[in-house]
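Section 3.1 - Work completed
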Amino acid sequence: MASYAAGARAQSAWPSKPVKIVVPFAAGGTTDILARAMAPELSKAFGQQFIVDNRAGAGGNVGAEIVARAPADGYTLLMGTVGTHGINRALYPKLPYDPIKDFAPVTLVAGVPNVMEMNADKARQLGINNVHDFIKYAKSHPGKLNMASSGNGTSIHLAGEMFKHMTGIFMTHVPYRGSGPALMDLVAGNMDVMFDNLPSSIQQIKGGKLKPLAVTSAKRSSALPDVPTVEEAGGPALKGFEASSWFGLLAPAGTPADIVSRLQQESAKALASPAVREKLEAQGAIPGGNTPVEFARMIADEHAKWARVVKASGAKVD
């Protein structure tokens, strides 16, 4: 009885030191933006600092493996993505972690559409005003366009691969260690096109540096209501095109259930607060907050979906 009471006191004392949120991509991308939006809210809720730790590499696999191997004590969390927990198992022959067995899902933080976008100056120079123009140019200039992504296996990569597969065009894929550095090169004119997560691109779009051609979701985004979906803009060849992204908090498998529950409850409160909700929605993100059971079910469904997408698109790790 004494040892049980001591264990209960130890659990209830969590957190007694700072908590690390591992972001498996470089700073500046949507994964990083969402983690930095959540960290101060969780810091206030728990009275301990939640620190963002960027660990980029291998399409998110480096950071995901770090968390999978971390002690299951609630002090190391992952801002997981559709890539790390939906796509990569189907894309990588040898994944250094099991996205189901090695993690305890906490909650979905947000879902976001991707946006097919070009460097605005490059689009003007090439006479590309819409998706039809883009396809026409790509078909008459095979391999001339460079497609940046946040890394192999990310939704940004897969959205581009789906587009290539469905339209029969060829673009050279250039993977980066996150959306942030890829976006910098796109804005600088070193890259031609990207299917970026909307939150990390929206300010550059509004500033006129990037030209949005379409969003990859099934419906238009309220943040860019005048921009059509890929399906709308592309016609019959792109019927059924959808490649949206999601981001969520996960802990190492075996993390005490009461810690996971407390993290979910406080995350859901933060995501429901007007300040956080309005901030995310203004960037094109749809706030989450579901339960660990619901999030686990969603991850399982995403595995099945993206395995079909990877097979159909012919996507490969470069």
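Second construct:
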Amino acid sequence: MTNLKTLEVWFITGSQHLYGEETLNLVAEHSKAIATGLDSAGQIPVRVVYKPTVKTTEEIYETLLAANSAENVIGVIAWMHTFSPAKMWIRGLSILKKPLLHLHTQYNRDIPWNSIDMDFMNLNQSAHGDREFGFMVSRMRKNRKVVVGHWQDPEALSQIGGWTRAAAGWYDWQGAKFARFGDNMRYVAVTDGDKVEAELKFGFSVNSYGIGDLVALINAVHDIDIEKLVGEYEKMYTISDNLRRGGADHSAVYEAARIELGLRKFLEDGNFKGFSDTFEDLHGMVQLPGLAVQRLLADGYGFAGEGDWKTAALVRAFKVMGTGLEGGNGFMEDYTYHFDPNNSLVLGSHMLEIDASLASTKPSLEVHPLGIGGKADPARLVFNVAGGHAINASLIDMGNRFRLLINEVEAVEPQHELPNLPVARVLWKPLPDMKTGCAAWIYGGGAHHTVYSQNLSAEVIQDFADMADIEFLAIGKDTKLDEFRNEIRWNDIAYK
């Protein structure tokens, strides 16, 4: 997983030579203080690096060109301390490829009522300097994040921090590789899509690999390595005696470890950040890869089943964005409903592959039959997911554009034991309510596969969609179905 502290955003302040050396020295002093404050703020997980004040067209262009070229720079924060004539910014903004945040702030929080004079006014012109800059960015139709507030304001710091997380997820996608074992699940529509357009739009590539290439690596795994990994399982998870060494069903756990080691080697050798598979194309494998997928997800890989490469890539991006935060991000599926009018719920789960990082308690390693796939009984981790606020997100190909759709939900603690359902699971209430949330999701074309996030906000996901320059639709506590349907209609016109 990406260490976010190795990533940088550049703090760039705009001014001009009109104000003289003394004023420009103060601009630089204040800019350094703000950049240092942002860099040390706990809400911001990446480095914030001060850059010298830009005062001319050439300085702006060279600084933004350098930001494009710097490998570990994931974005730029721009602030106009004084007035910075925005025609100077045209050439630089036209070549900027990194995400942009416009911080509408000022060095001083309060007006010094008794001492304010025209010297103070000439120095502290952000109120209208930022408007000049904002006009040009709008005129150029460039996506950016605008954060308003004093640079020490916790709410503003939280917004900046969220934006840097989105920028980290976007950065991680550039040049990322995702493996697709086999093809899409036969006849399924929503999990398929245009991989060429995705690479053009998102920067990651998806290519298919024969299952035989993976099986060859699985079969080449050494017994001593399998034994070592099985020992790790026995320490990490609750496991019954029949699955331990010498137990009647130990061979299933042994085979699951073999699959994990082979799959992990394939991903590491190919420098992949995620993968998908389909149970319709696993020739040569003894069992479906349940436990292996759950553990790889917990280690930061993206995954989705049935060939769903879009969700696999989105899982990876969410994991990067959520790095260091309490809670997890993982593959999920809306599986079945509880339509009690007084307590409507969605049961989220999947056949085998729910992310172990979502577990609220120590997972139980179990082996059970699986009525699909035609393979031997697979090993899997069984656990409940804790209650609390969460988001479900779906990346879908609408033909003429990609759409990122989210639904905010409230997960609830398990209300029943579910003794005959040996899979990982979570219960949630869609916002604003079951009927509106589900109907809006269907009107929006959302997939049955999602990314389930316990630690990312709707605002962060919107920032991410803006960086990708794709359509974003949110279903939450204030959603009204008629307004949501109108938003879809307006978007259809806008994207045509």
